[in-house]
Amino acid sequence: MKLSTKGRYGLRLMIELALHEKNELVTLKEISKQQEISQKYLWSLIAPLQKAGLVRAERGARGGYMLARPASKITLRDIVVETEGPLSIVECVRTPSVCHRNALCVARDVWADVSAKIENALKSITLKDLVTSYKKKESAFLKARKQKVSK
Q1: Domains in the chain, please, with CATH?
Q2: Percentage, residues of the chain above pLDDT 90
Q3: What is the pTM (predicted TM-score) of this model?
């Protein structure tokens, strides 16, 4: 299983919005600059996230985007499903009728179990968790950089 660019960049877009959760609206231009993702690509990601109720837009000269819910209420699963689609790693888990062997297939049981574990893992991680991790990494990075410069 491999996440596409849509899933990876969609998560980066959402993390950037979460980093500004308590501040003002964020423009796609700002997100593009911070996350090094083209604005054109961000446009293709923002629409499904808006439609899913994860992102809110405000129009106008001072417009931009923000999270539609608190970062603590948005899971990695929410983002991945909206950018990638269903989480089943094989079609027969999501749609058993595609295979006449599903009642006897032990492999399908394994894939169903793996899919459920992936889904549960993604449900357990919130955007708030990711922002907290980011801030810790950023702090450690800046501290190491400062020490390197002072030598």
Answers
A1: 5-150 (1.10.10.10)
A2: 70
A3: 0.87
